[in-house]
């Protein structure tokens, strides 16, 4: 009888260890707004160092990622560039808990154009500026913020014909780096990415000219369906002191 109990206990331990190893080996799929493609790499590396858990980041415009999630994309965590899209997902039953704000974004105007970037509203009206890059306001929160700022300064009608739209902030950054445009609206975190920005100048856009960019994370229902407990671990990790140091050190403010 004792041997039988001992054998059963050993089997239980083997099953428990196998389940633990399977959980660790299960790669976590994280949908990430394009503005955070630089900082997510650093967060992934730190998270793996601390937990050994592999993660895969899928980058895109927040609106498009939201649509993909609602159409069954197998993402388990979603880092949006705003709070509206995660709140929509939660209301529609795609989230396990209400979204939480993990970072506050900062909008900048950036480029190689000649002129005083501190007085960028005047620059945009000049004939020297032919094209102005802006992310699609319908799907990219930073594009929406840029659109709001143009309206605030009563520039929307004056520069309408100069606007060049990108699907996401990632595309806007590519436009700026490759010289497709010589000025555009992007996120301050772009300045911390590992790219050559030696010829680029920039200035922060006054925060009073656009709605606060509250970037939210949501733990998706897919995590429960897939049985991936690592999703909860990464979700909790974003609130840790280590994650906050990385976030605040890469062009973002922290929520109070």
Q: Can you give a write-up of this model?
A:
- It contains ten helices and ten strands.
- By secondary structure, the chain is of the alpha/beta class.
- It has two domains: 2-104 and 215-248, D-Maltodextrin-Binding Protein, domain 2, CATH 3.40.190; 107-209, 3-Layer(aba) Sandwich (D-Maltodextrin-Binding Protein, domain 2).
- The strands form three sheets. The chain has a five-stranded mixed β-sheet with strand order 2-1-3-10-4, sandwiched between helices.
- Helix 2 (37-51) links the parallel strand 1 (28-33) and strand 2 (55-60).
- Helix 2 runs antiparallel to helix 10.
- Mean pLDDT is 90; it is low at 5-24.
Number of domains: 2
Shape: elongated
Give the N-to-C terminal Cα separation.
Answer: 59 Å
Q: Biggest sheet, in brief?
A: 5 strands, mixed
| Classification by helices and strands | alpha/beta
- Helix content estimate: 40-55%
Order of helices and strands: HEHEHEHEEHEHEHEEEHHH
Tally of DSSP β-strands: 10
Spell out the blueprint of helices and strands:
Layout: H1 2-25, E1 28-33, H2 37-51, E2 55-60, H3 62-70, E3 77-79, H4 84-91, E4 100-104, E5 107-111, H5 120-125, E6 132-135, H6 141-152, E7 163-166, H7 169-178, E8 183-187, E9 201-204, E10 214-219, H8 222-226, H9 230-237, H10 241-248
Parallel strand pairs: 1-2, 1-3, 6-7
Antiparallel strand pairs: 3-10, 4-10, 5-8, 5-9
Helix pairs in contact: 2-10
Main features:
about 260 residues, alpha/beta, D-Maltodextrin-Binding Protein, domain 2, 2 domains, 3-stranded antiparallel beta sheet, 10 helices, 10 strands, elongated
